[in-house]
Amino acid sequence: MSEVWSNWSGWVKAWPNAIIEPASEEELADAMRVAQAPVRVAGSGHSFTALVESSGTIISLNKMSGLLDHDSTKHTARIKAGTTIRDLGPMLFDRGMGLANQGDIDRQAVAGAVGTGTHGTGVGLGSISAAVTGFRLVTAAGDVMNASATENPDLFNAGRVSMGSLGVMSEITMQALPAYALEETGGRMPVETVLAQVEELRDAHRHFEFFWFPYSDEAIVKFLSETDTEAKPRRRRDDGAETRDDKIFRLACDVSIYLPFLRGPIQKYLTSASGRYSLSTDEPGRVRWSHDAFPSDRNNKFNEMEYAVPAEVGPDCAREVAAHMRKCGINFLFPLEYRYVAADDIWLSPFYQRDSVTISVHQYHRQPYADLFAGVEAIFRRYQGRPHWGKLHTQKARDFATMYPRWDDFCKLRGELDPQARLLNAHLKDVFGVE
To answer: Is the pTM of this model over 0.90?
Structure first.
């Protein structure tokens, strides 16, 4: 028995028979042919669902990192699948490029972010998966397949969001942009003003999101806008290195466990600590290159649920979720997070053929999450929500069949590529309805 594997939050653990770390596509293919099932692939472990859990084999992509090739004219890059987004940013920048969009956490391996539909925010901007123009996939049998819009197009449309259920990506080609700088502005605003003007706020900036502590009457808005102003380099702390703000927020979370009646006052205080934002302000913001502007170093561990709902019902859904969280009596401290993602054509993407708003609910890792998440999940479902594949949900195959028009096509392709279901653990067997 090998060592224990754990995800980032610590709530998902596995004791696999073997953890294999191939350093090349050839080693990966050899490992896939002989690995004990279930065979699951791990990037950085930043998913909250049990995607990687296995008593058989976990294949780590840690040693498959780096940039294979790039095209400076077309602004495309071939990337080893285990490369983290944090490492990818400087690699692209050194070649005059930047990702079109990314989330505010960059710990994920590119393959994990692509495979779960991870995203940032911005009107007209898709997920990281939508920026993929091709990939190489090692199947359960150890065969290597190319996929793009012109080569194996069904595999391309299915495989860009597939949670490692079709095989393991060895390399990914992504469409990028010429390197660009972003100016960050924001602050707190009355939450009803934000909800009433979300479309105006969304359309006025390249990126818009807001954070709302449900016990507060104000939300914290964040904008990133493209600019020609000279960008200042950012000195990133080592991954996991705590800041003063990290320590303060962790203390607040720990206090609220033992003194839950303080959750309301603490949430209001944390909101008030952000400066006030006015739509009429002309104050300049912080300017950084895109790969430095997107990430926020989040070191306080949590578990998370996120659903994508049709963009037009986002404000109503957020109001109802926040009201439930205030009334349910369950202790929590983290804010809601509200973002925009453009529609795409990926079969199991939460944004398939639908411009969406994503709403995220978090719970501190030292507190149970099931009851809190169950209540908000019921609301998300009433608003035709689709769950993020890497974040907690309780949906099964019968539910997904009603959410995704290409569900049956995906399941048929999965069965053809892995007829013995060697790539499915218990969690994914529930997802796909496989005995």
So the answer is: yes
